[in-house]
Structure formats: structure tokens, C-alpha cells
Fold:
Amino acid sequence: MMQLLVNISKLEDTTITPASGDGKEWMIRINDANQFYNENKDAEEVLVKVDKGVVDTSGNLVQTFESKVHFTQDTTGPELVDVDMDQNSKDEVEKIYFEYDEELLTATELDLSNLTLLDKDNNKEYAFTEIFEGAAAEIDTDGKTVTVTVDPTVASGNYEVTSGEGFVQDDAATPNDSQEVTKDLYIGEAEETIGATVEDAENTFTVTFDKAVTSESAMNPANYTVDGKALPADTKIVLENDQTVEFELPAGFIAEDKVDAKVTVENIVPVDSNVKFSPYAEAIHSVYDNTAPEASGELLKDGQIQLTFSEEVASVIATDFDEVIVNDLVLDDSAYAAVADATNDGEDAVKITVDAAVATDAGETYLYIDVDGDGELNHDKDIVLDQVKGDEGKEDWYDEGEVKPADLNEVDSVVVNVKEEAETKDTSHLGNSLKAGNITIK
Structure:
């Protein structure tokens, strides 16, 4: 590659660099425009000379050369020539490109407050970042384009965008500010949307839509969630009219009282095909525990039954436990007693004691459960727990002369029934009754 020795009259601060890879072209850059141009003068003429001593790659001297060069100082700022954008599959704007007619000074700090928008549909003016949130600007690698990346939230609008004076500067020796320029920015037609309002009252919800919707979508339980759960498929949703539905939460759907439950409504189809439904999602709704408490039980060491509850109850009503079934035989009410009790941990409980009786028959003494409560031993109806020859029972049948309660650990099966509409209720707002039905103890 040849060496270049250049003398340029009037210049002290210059930089000479290759302008091509083959060494045939070189660029002379003026680093100090103020020193180069006379005051209040936009043009200057210099003499460029190639002196002796410049050789090519073969070592041959290059012929001396001199030429006058006319320099014109760039005093015009970059002009905005086009505004373009990228949109995603939802037509939401992701990037906006501001293209200028010359290379820009990359050191320029891009102040987005220099960009403003005019909504051409209503003549309202906005700061650029009011419409396009999360905006961040940078000069692209082509040197002439400012790329503004925005949050993808805007899918419609008809705007004029104005790039204010000084938004960018050119890469001249003395950088020039861009001038104010306005360009059109058409994003797309706004899609008409409708919403919904939701009212709640004691686990009954009324949903009102802004416009008529299809009954199929409005009555589909899968389109509604309450407290994070979709409505069960068999939820009854009543269509009051083409804009209103009502439904009650099914029993067992809510486990605790809340005042900030989230309700969502989505996938609703408006009757007007040109309208889109905007999903509803608000965590402002009251829901109430509608799950019945349940009782479970076990046999204690002494053979009595202890029942406990799945959640706190307001009070225990012993008469709610209306049947005790031992070895598949329903005991007469006189054969057992149920009382409110407490566990060792102080939790509410019920203790059920089944009475035992003693009778002598044909030289044998029996310890038995008087199933029918008639006070007589009937081998076909009653349950024999133990027996001994003679007319006296065993000592361990008694406690201080009284017959001990029946030890149900000695029988084959024990079941307790909870009646319908029990008065034992939980402490929730709705006061749910204890779940009815059989409780298998053994």
C-alpha cells in the first residue's frame, strides 16, 4: 500500500485515513471547523498537495500532485423524511422508525419529550409517551434512522407525529439541529369493544354486557371464573335477556369468606360481528363459604365414639346425630347418648356412648347391647358383647357397681348418621349446616 504525504494549506487539525481497501483512495477529515472556516463564512478553498516521497506498493515514486478543493460548510440540519412502524400479529405497534436524510450524530441524547402526537380523529394533542408506553429510542446502525421501541399496547389510531427542533443532530463538523417536522402515523381503525359489569349478592352473580351477546357464549360456564376456579360444567346460568345472565355458585364451590375474590369473564361473543368483547377481570367481589362442614369419627380406647369436624363450628347440636348403627342394626334412641364434647386440643367434638346391659338366661350371664331398647335380651335382635356361665357377670363389666358403656371396639361395624338440615353449622357468613349422611367409624 502506498504512503500518502499531504500538505493542505490553512489546515492544522486534520486526520488522513484510507478510504478504500486497495490504498488508492484516502480521506482527509477536517476536525476543527471553527479553525478551518473564517468567521461568518460558510465556504473555503484549500490547496491539496501530494509531495515527493509518496511511493506505491512496488516502491515507485508517485508523481507529485496538487489541486484546489472547494469546501462548503454543512449548515442545514437533518430533515425527517419518513415515519414507519412494525406491528405484531395483533396489529399492536412494537417499533416506530424516524428516517432522516443524512447521517446523525450518534452521541446525541434522544429526548422523547421532543416527540408529540395529534389525534386526527378528535384534534387532541398528546405527549408521545402518553400513547406509547415504555418507549426507548436509539440511532440505528444505518446512521440515518432513529428506532423507538414501545410496549405493544397500541393497535389503532390516526395520528400526526411531530419531531421537534433539536430532536437529533447531523454528523457535520459543526452539528446542526433538526428542524420541526410533522408526518402522518396511521396505525389502524379502532375496533369497537364492549365490556361487562358484574354484581354479586350472597354468591349470586349478575353479569350485564354493554351490547347483545350470543346465548351460547354467555351461558357457557367455562367462560367464567370465580376466585381462581372455572364454574363447574353443570352450573345453571340463566339468560335473563340478550345482555344479562345470572348464576348462583354451586354448593361446595367456595371454602372461605372473602371480600376481594377475583371474577373473570372472557370468550364472550357479541351478536354484532364487528364488535369485540373486552375481557372482565376484577378482584373486588365478595364470596361466601358455601362448603358444608363434615364430621368424621373414631373409637376411643374405652370403646366410645368421638366425632370431630372439618372446620370450626358455631355450636354442637347433639340431636343432629340421629342414628347409631352397630353391626348393621339401628339402635333405639334409648340405647345411646350423644353429647357435645371437646378433644384434648380443645376442638369441638361429639361423644356418643352406647349403653351395655346385663341379663341371665339359661345359666349364662350376658353383656349385650339392647338394640331395640325393650329391656330384655333377645338373641335374634340384640348384640352380645360377652358371656359367662352362672348368674353373675365378670368384674371388668362394671365400674363402681355400674355397668360400663359398651366397648364398640368389640363389634364388627359402627356407623353414625347426620340428619338432613342439621343445626350444627360452621362459623361462616352463610352458616353452612353439617353435611348429612352416614359417617363410617368402623
Q: What stands out?
A: Residues 33-36 form the longest helix (4 residues). The CA atoms of residues 73 and 344 lie 97 Å apart. The longest strand covers residues 43-50.
